[in-house]
Records
---
Amino acid sequence: MLKPTCKTDALEGRVKFRAALVRWFEKHGRDYPWRRTREPYAILVSEVMLQQTQIATVLGRGFYTRFLETFPTIQALAEAEDERLLKAWEGLGYYRRVRMLRATAQALIAEHGGIFPTELDRLLKLPGIGRYTAGALRAFASDLPAVVVDGNVARVLARVMDFSAPIDDTSGQKQIWDWAEGLADPANPRIYHSALMELGQKICRPGVPDCLGCPVASFCKTREPENLPVKRQKTTITAIDEHALWLLDPGGRLLLHREQAKRREGLWKLPTRQAAEISSLPVLDEHPYTITRYRVTLRVHDGASLRDSLSPATGESWHEPEDVLALAMPAPFRRVIERLLR
Ligand code: SF4
């Protein structure tokens, strides 16, 4: 591919590297709500939401704004009850994140009077705050020197430094964080880190990057950016089926199950059964979705023939149809329930 030649090592030319990046960002940087605030709570919410969820989803479907309207302060989040908390996160998946966010808020209230500390070591002692989030809070909320490495930044640095070893083992991660520290701008952390992340999202994107439009191309050593970064672990996607029951009692109430397992704890869904138990029943609806490394086909079976023989299992209960949609549910189950209720 056509790519400008590297003229200067980024670390040796760090002052110019930072300046080129910031100049580009000031002209092309996107205007996100979390870039308009210095409020650490709002920044923390954005950082946690953007772990494992795309910016387009978080903004386009209004999750960020809605969450902050529902829980406008740390105090409100710390006091949130399960049902309301999960409902506010519904559709974002990975619900462990929001429980952890509440735990962070509770620790902030209990240990810091609701005020975010700014020191790295004190931030790192809070539940749910790792070195990425701590760095992001320091840089974006307090404009303090920080090291901030997310997936976008790791990709940019692997390419700029032409790093052909895996970035996802211990030594690869250490190397990337060392370079990130060496390049970070202590005088202008907020803009510098926003710029580097944006470069990874917009220009130095996965696959084939836009090297001709890149503001730091003259510092970038790789000749084959499309082959970088290297990852040790390749995720293998496994296809599985999930079998759920659609069962109404004689009064028209729907049988639901409240999940106890960790991943979806507290969420409501249709009761599921082993394939051998119900796969021969007629299929009313199917919905494909992906979760972690699984491509799941959710099949909803008509349980009418079981109505007299089936007694609800632990965690299962009957619900009036008009109350069902107010409950917090995993998005795939909400979709099929909405369709079938219609
Ligand atoms: S887009 Fe990425 S790979 Fe291309 S020149 Fe810029 S930093 Fe290097």
---
Amino acid sequence: MSSSTELAPPTAAAAELPRLLAGALADRPLSLEEHFDRYGADRQTAGRSRSGELIELVAAAGLTGRGGAGFATARKLRAVADAHARPVVVGNGVEGEPVSDKDKALLRHTPHLVLDGVALAAGAVGARTAIVAFAAGATHEIAVMRAALAERERHDIDRIQIRVARVPDGFVAGEETAIIHSLNGGPATPTLTPPRPFERGVGGAPTLVQNVETLAHLALISRFGPRWFRSIGTAAEPGSALVTVGGAVARPGVYEVPLGLPVADLLAWAVGPPESLTALLVGGYFGTWVAAEQALRLRLIDADLASAGASLGARAIFALPRSACGLVESAHVIRYLADESAGQCGPCVHGLDAIAGAFERLARGGRDAAGAPAQLKRWLGQVKGRGACRHPDGAARLVESALRVFGAEVELHARGRCQGTRRAPLPLGRAR
Ligand SMILES: Cc1cc2nc3c(=O)[nH]c(=O)nc-3n(C[C@H](O)[C@H](O)[C@H](O)COP(=O)(O)O)c2cc1C
Ligand code: SF4
């Protein structure tokens, strides 16, 4: 997805923002000197010896992963630090989610903050090797990262080896076991767990896979401490987060928001009059459609979004205009997800293709559409929880929310009528 990066915070209330994108320049990444001017040097950055101190800071800050699942970062760090072999750290910058641009925006603007996080995480778990993984098509971000690494080498910043790796483009390629599979010379497809990455990952070593935004937050927590981190956000979901906003939006882009920001505030800034919207797709393609009126009463935290069956997920929000049909747009995404499966487990090979076909019949409308909702409900029950990775569950969540939120359209389509007058195409990834 190509979108601009909004460096300004979406509300005046968020005066402390941006954090991750602070001082970022629109046309080029921050140099090492500019980075240290902006954030200050961190005495711990240079890959220090194994220590629990940073892990305790991260635990006190309550940092959770920004790559989708929202797992407690300190718990992952501890699991890898306690491993009996020398671990490897992987910064996950693959961002296979087509509707998201937040990780690429971060890597384009403040690569040294990510690299500080990589070096610090490596120091905390006792790793001497780290890899920042990108999708092969992210050529600009790869070039930015290589230049940043060369700059650090010239200034002798890191005491660990950090290298860039490319994995093939694709929706599931950013899943952690898929990255490891690819780094170990296989295809970028998920593998069965256990073993989980922290047990056996790159080259058989215990591996910490952490989203690049998570690592950038970690670098700031190391500098400014947990109390500073918690000074925005909510007690249960502290800090800020990068969110990509797209679709029927006046100002599409990547926003850094305090967790807990009312959705209405974000929309007022990014979208314009919310009456022009039917629904929001919250959390990317593994996310959930939420009716616009309901979304306006929620805040951007999982605790609130759960009441609408949603979660922040990939932290991407797509606004569907009233002129477009939610069923037609969903049908394209569901077909995309079916085609993007690694094609190695039953639920994906048989189930997702059939589900995409039934949803396409529903979107086309008419006689074929009438039986589709019942078929879909039956098949969804058969794919959930059955894959090697969460791909079928993510696709099922999207289908279920589309049937729920676009219930009126489902009825109309069964009678051969569609009220959509205009397409609002969701991005469908880079050609592979
Ligand atoms: C199908 C699928 C695709 C994923 N793609 C990405 C991705 O592109 N980037 C990412 O950071 N995490 C992605 N994840 C989540 C990763 O597997 C992993 O949980 C994450 O990188 C851990 O980092 P975090 O704890 O910092 O969030 C994906 C998960 C699944 C199931
Ligand atoms: S569930 Fe689907 S995407 Fe995941 S590993 Fe199996 S075939 Fe691949």
